[in-house]
Amino acid sequence: MSISIFKKYTSGLRVCEPKKFVLKKFDTFYNPQGIDKDKSEIMLNESTQMLAELQDKLYAHNKHSILIIFQAMDAAGKDGAVKHVMSGLSAQGVRVSNFKVPSSNELDHDYFWRHYLELPSRGEIGIFNRSHYENVLVTRVHPEYILNENLPNIKSIKDINQHFWKSRFKQINRFEKNLTENGTIILKFFLNLSKDEQKRRFIERIDDPKKNWKFSVGDLKERALWDEYQNAYQELIQHTATAEAPWFVIPADNKWSARIIISEIILQEFSKLKIHYPIVNATQKAALQSAKEQLLNEE
């Protein structure tokens, strides 16, 4: 079974006209031909094998790095996407970073600092489970958090206005442009979950003892701010979807199809690099042949 049935659909998930982007126009559910979990696992396994081959070339080529960013509402499936989509890759060449509430030490630096420390090296794939976008998302819904950054020109919440947020969007675009100009390929995924599906998953976490740890009362407080978060996501995508660092809006109500879609997009974008194993020149080939002869002549 081929994942090719997803190819046509994935082309419409890239935000190509950010100024016209409207989040509500994007699907939260997609499952072609009623594909079930078993079929999805087969298809996902197919794509992870292809990703593993490309990762091996990326590591050997050693000129590019890949940065994959996941952002979403709670319970949208970020952890599961990381686990399943990247399951077939070599741990040696993958770096997963999870960003929680910033520490006091992190707050004493600019908000990019902790993300710089986790960027992938050449030949590596880096995954940000939440990212620098929290600084125009959670802080957008809770602007009082900005005061913890102790910024010189911010004395009160009144100073955190539209100009402030537009300035942050520009900072993020400069940050990402600098990375791409130095060999990092950036792919940004927003897992688009419906409010009804989040409710179902929250109840599942409460009912299942094995999932109780995933739920906190604070999750309900943030859910009450659903519209504010949706507006924040829409505006940040409008301002930060660029040709160099595109956003992809993934229908997340069906976890299995979401994972296949993510892997398919990564494969498509990965293949554009046209990377290959290093090609040795004539002198190097002669040296290799000489080494082979020495090995064969060993007693």
Helix-strand layout with pairing:
Elements: H1 7-10, H2 37-61, E1 65-72, H3 78-85, E2 94-98, H4 104-107, H5 113-116, E3 125-129, H6 138-141, H7 162-181, E4 184-192, H8 195-207, H9 217-223, H10 226-240, E5 247-251, H11 255-271, H12 282-296
Parallel strand pairs: 1-3, 1-4, 2-3, 4-5
Characteristic terms for this protein:
single chain; 299 residues; alpha/beta; Rossmann fold; 5-stranded parallel sheet; 45% helix; 11% strand
Summarize this, please?
The chain is of the alpha/beta class and 299 residues long. It has a single domain, classed as 3-Layer(aba) Sandwich (Rossmann fold). Helix content is 45%, strand content 11%.
Count of beta strands: 5
Major sheet size, sense and barrel closure: 5 strands, parallel
Architecture, CATH level 2? Answer: 3-Layer(aba) Sandwich
Q: What is the H/E order?
A: HHEHEHHEHHEHHHEHH
The whole-number mean of residue pLDDT values reads 93
Enumerate the spans where pLDDT stays under 50 for 5 or more consecutive residues.
none
Care to describe what's here?
The protein is of the alpha/beta class and 299 residues long. It has one domain (3-296): 3-Layer(aba) Sandwich (Rossmann fold). It is built from twelve helices and five strands. Helix 2 (37-61) runs parallel beside helix 11 (255-271). The model has no long low-confidence stretch (mean pLDDT 93).
